[in-house]
Write a structure and sequence with these properties.
heterotrimer, A alpha/beta (474), B alpha+beta (379), C mainly beta (102), A: 474 residues, alpha/beta, five-stranded parallel sheet, C: mainly beta, two-stranded antiparallel ribbon, 1 helix, 6% helix, globular
């Protein structure tokens, strides 16, 4: 083991855990920074420890129980051999150093090599009423159940598209929640057309079919090819309105809506670490560039898992291993081939999953041209309360043809979420109004802090800071 | 009119650099009937002009800057009329804080000097000060309030001037790089993107990059890039009543109507082209800021940023005629204090072009002040 | 469709894991009870349908993503401390405010 290297992994989901495991097998002792209280990431999220949660892995993770347990156990075994830092937010990255926050105190974490396994959040396509209290993301609805044993409401409608839509609805119904409907904006025909690609992962495909079948067998109303019109309510959700694929108006009472349209990667740390980005047509967003092994454009930064492009939990495990192998090779550590996974095999499997993902993205593509139909009074930026009308007026007056300029002038993306929930909407609206492709209207730049942080921890005099250069500005 | 000699568009004035200086110059010239091209290699008002603190501040300026500052302040009083928006301008007053006794002497001296230039301010300290400002921490022992000062939103104001210039008839070209700039004895010849253009006058308002243009004419100013470090909090209940600064500089703070507190001080990092904020600087300024404004402790930091600005050894800008080339006007190097001055500079430059002189004293800002040797004129 | 919105009905519903220890806390000055392992967001939404109000629209918000991404669930302790409700575990005696002071 070389003492000159300091490897840091950010993220302790399947990608981060398998990366750590691969590094440890090569006698490297990484620091693993986890924003959550317990390892597992989101897909394999564990309920809080020491609180008496009793549900089994089978109940929590369903068909993924074995995989979840394997990932959890792997991390448990690694603990003596890694520097694991839960409840720790890496909020800045400059000059090969992460600034981290844990329990109200700051710690500087220098690194020679960084693996970013930052995961993803739900992709949001807004609709009127989406900011009402009682509307949650699909991922959020899933976490409420998985990590807290709660349903987001007493009468829930799930709306949007993507495999997660059916999975969460199934999990809810199975757990005894009242699921009033599953409203999928993707037409069945498109899903059928994408079937051949999805068959590259037969068990994934089969599970998807199973969830739908189970829901139908248990009388849960499923509609496909819908157009979501509005979520109703004054101070909180009371109903949802949509049109069927034939255009017929429908409505349902409900007190909670779980919505989502696939996932979007969390790429802020990669941006701060200096990675080059490129627009990815399949993911419909800007992604940090990475080669097949997970090397980024920055010499000492590696990317694995959904944080660099959505591919799912299985791919995250493979990519975590593959990126760690690349790092090991780049450092110059020679390991016994049999002690490590086979890089070529990993890449081959990742390529197969990529075919499946392409099928998923096609089958469950978010509504085309949604931005054109947003009413002017619909909130697009929920943090700053910026409406579609405000953004349109700015774009139509010629004042903004690019997203950073639109942000400067309308405040979209300037709120606490830093563009996570509205950035893609801003780009979609710009593209719709200017006629330019999504790739040509700019990329929202990330800045520290990666998430809002309280000021108080920064006030402790812990020797972390360097006396800054004198500046006599007024 | 358009002189299409060899397909070259001709302008009365070409302005190199679409920051607030260039944009306000373009507006003033377009309104006086000049044919103006404003050439910006990225987006107008997006560099230092768009990322600065937003202080509309005369207080604390040196005597030589005050006449220009007073003139510029008058422009800020007419934003809706000039650029069609209010730019979120607030006449909040500027409170320059004393943190030690010696600072109070500095404030007294400045107040007396400024009064002679028509700028009113009054210095407070002791229990009356404490009582008036319960939201200030004990680190502040007094301050000078200049009630006519205020703040505005540079992200709106700077592009706002460029758009007003365009509406007034200026040819505003963004994402257009100027190159091959020469003076042929009568006119300035250059390429704007792929097009060849010419002009009678050239204004060098290229900010931190102005020495590139000055260099084409055998001139330069001792200017280095600086990266002012800025940060902003989440929206908070309104409690900061004035735009704040401190004697000696190093920290400045304002609260916008929506509640966010914008705070700056110290330096980020950069490479001359792009800038990044520094967590060490943010941390250090945060400590000073919380000593002055205890209520900030309970806030969330939501964003940090920096930008590229040009700083001169004496902190004064370079404004005025070239020493080598006729009808070349320099206006750069504002050293972090340009947001207030720029609209005044625009009027001054317009006067120099249209009338050959200006009523506002700018001799102290001559590019020649850095060199004792006369320069040879280039052709 | 129903037109009545009851403000102090819970948003969340406990489907399972109800055997856990009870944790007393204070919500807008009123004593309340959560279960061990509840996040502050769960604890609050088991009592009412909002955790904060938007400072611009004034409308109630109940969080959104539950994984610390959307930043829509920041609440304040009575001592002024900021807490992201979905990622903060409720502790006995916590005093949290959901009615903002503006």
């Amino acid at each position: 083991m070389s003492g000159a290297h300091r490897v840091v992994i950010v993220g302790a989901g399947p990608a981060g855990i398998r990366a750590a495991e691969t590094l440890v097998a090569a006698s490297v002792r990484p620091v693993v920074i986890d924003e959550n209280a317990r390892w597992g990431g989101q897909i394999y999220r564990q309920p809080p420890a020491g609180a008496g949660f009793k549900r089994s892995a089978a109940t929590l993770y369903g068909f993924e129980a074995k995989k979840a347990e394997a990932v959890h156990d792997a991390m448990a075994k690694l603990l003596p051999k890694i520097d694991y830092r839960p409840d720790t937010l890496a909020w800045a990255c400059e000059q090969n150093r992460l600034d981290t926050l844990h329990a109200g105190r700051e710690t500087s974490v220098p690194f020679t090599h960084l693996i970013i396994a930052s995961g993803a959040t739900d992709r949001i396509v807004p609709l009127p009423g989406w900011t009402l209290a009682g509307v949650f993301t699909l991922g959020g609805a899933q976490v409420a159940l998985k990590a807290q044993g709660c349903a987001i409401g007493s009468r829930v409608v799930f709306a949007g598209t993507g495999p997660l839509l059916y999975l969460v609805a199934y999990q809810y119904a199975k757990a005894g929640a009242r699921v009033a409907a599953v409203l999928d904006t993707s037409p069945l025909a498109r899903q059928a057309a994408a079937a051949p690609r999805m068959l590259s992962q037969p068990s994934m495909f089969a599970k998807g079919v199973y969830y739908v079948g189970w829901l139908q067998a248990h009388g849960v109303r499923i509609e496909r090819g819908v157009t979501l019109d509005r979520i109703d309510g004054d101070d909180a959700v009371r109903g949802i309105r949509w049109r069927t694929r034939r255009g017929e108006p429908r409505s349902l009472d409900c007190d909670a809506v779980g919505m989502g349209f696939g996932l979007r990667p969390e790429t802020q740390l990669a941006d701060l670490a200096g990675c080059r980005f490129r627009f990815d047509a399949l993911n419909r967003c800007w992604l940090p560039e990475r080669d097949a092994a997970g090397r980024s454009s920055a010499r000492n930064v590696y990317l694995a898992g959904d944080g660099a492009g959505i591919a799912g939990a299985d791919a995250a495990e493979l990519a975590g291993r593959r990126a760690a192998l690349a790092l090991i090779e780049d450092i110059g550590i020679v390991t016994h081939r049999s002690a490590q996974p086979d890089a070529t095999k990993l890449e081959r499997e990742l390529a197969r999953i990529a075919v499946f993902r392409a099928g998923i993205e096609h089958a469950f593509a978010p509504p085309v041209n949604a931005a054109q139909h947003w009413p002017d009074d619909m909130t697009v930026c929920r943090c700053e309360d910026v409406t579609a009308g405000t953004m349109r007026a700015c774009i139509r007056s010629g004042l903004a043809t690019e997203v950073n300029r639109l942000k400067s002038l309308t405040r979209i993306g300037m709120g606490r979420c830093q563009g996570r929930m509205c950035g893609e909407s801003a780009i979609a609206l710009l593209a719709a109004e200017t006629g330019k492709p999504l790739a040509d209207v700019g990329r929202l730049r990330s800045q520290a802090p990666i998430k809002p942080i309280p000021i108080t921890p920064m006030l402790y005099d812990d020797g972390v800071h360097v006396q800054p250069e004198e500046a006599h500005d007024e | 009119m358009n002189d299409t000699r060899a397909g070259v568009s001709h302008f009365d004035v070409v302005i190199a650099g679409g920051g607030l200086v260039g944009s306000s110059t373009a507006l003033a010239l377009a309104k006086s009937g000049m044919r103006v091209a404003l050439i910006e290699r990225r987006f107008c008002g997006a560099q230092a002009s768009g990322v600065n603190y937003g202080g509309v501040r005369t207080q604390g300026r040196t005597a030589e800057q005050l006449p220009l500052a007073v003139r510029a302040r008058r422009v800020y009083g007419r934003l809706p009329e000039l650029i069609g928006i209010d730019g979120e301008m607030v006449v909040s007053g500027h409170l320059r804080l004393a943190r030690r006794e010696a600072d109070l002497d500095v404030l007294d001296r400045w107040s007396a000097m400024a009064r002679e230039h028509g700028v009113e301010s009054h210095v407070m300290s002791g229990p009356a000060f404490r009582q008036r400002y319960p939201w200030l921490g004990p680190a502040a022992i007094g301050g000078s309030l200049c009630p006519s000062d205020g703040h505005a939103n540079p992200r709106l104001v700077s592009p706002g001037f460029a758009h007003a210039a365009r509406r007034a008839g200026a040819d505003v070209r963004e994402q257009t790089e100027l190159s091959d700039i020469t003076f042929d004895g009568t006119r300035f010849q250059m390429r704007a993107g792929r097009e060849r253009i010419s002009s009678d006058w050239l204004v060098n308002s290229a900010g931190a990059w102005a020495n590139r243009i000055a260099g084409s004419f055998g001139e330069s100013a001792p200017m280095k890039p600086i990266y002012p470090n800025m940060w902003v909090t989440e929206p908070l209940p309104l409690f900061i009543g004035h735009s704040l600064g401190v004697v000696g500089g190093g920290i400045y703070a304002r609260q916008v109507e929506r509640g966010n507190c914008v705070i700056g001080g110290g330096r980020g990092h950069g490479d001359g082209e792009y800038a990044q904020p520094s967590t060490a600087t943010t941390r250090a300024v945060m400590r000073d800021a919380c000593a002055l404004l205890p209520a900030l402790r309970d806030a969330l930091l939501i964003r940090t940023w920096s930008g590229v600005e040009g700083e001169t050894p004496d902190g004064n800008p370079i404004i005025g005629l070239s020493r080598t080339t006729p009808r070349l006007l320099h206006a750069f190097g504002f050293s972090g204090g340009g947001f207030l001055l720029a609209p005044g500079v625009g009027e001054v430059l317009a006067e120099l072009v249209t009338q050959g002189e200006t009523s506002t004293p700018i001799d102290a800002f001559s590019i020649g002040r850095f060199s004792s040797m006369p320069l040879s004129v280039t052709h | 469709m129903s037109t009545v919105t009851i403000h102090h009905a819970p948003q969340f519903v406990r489907l399972d894991e109800t055997h856990r220890a009870r944790i007393p806390f204070v919500l807008d000055g009123v004593p309340a009870e959560a279960l061990a392992g509840d996040t502050l967001l769960t604890a609050i939404l088991m009592r009412q349908r909002h955790v904060r109000h938007s400072e611009f629209s004034g409308k109630p918000r109940a969080g959104f993503c539950l994984i610390g991404a959307c930043q829509d669930c920041w609440v304040r302790g009575e001592d002024g401390k900021r807490m992201r409700a979905c990622s903060t575990r409720v502790e006995a005696g916590m005093r949290v405010v959901t009615e903002d002071v503006r």
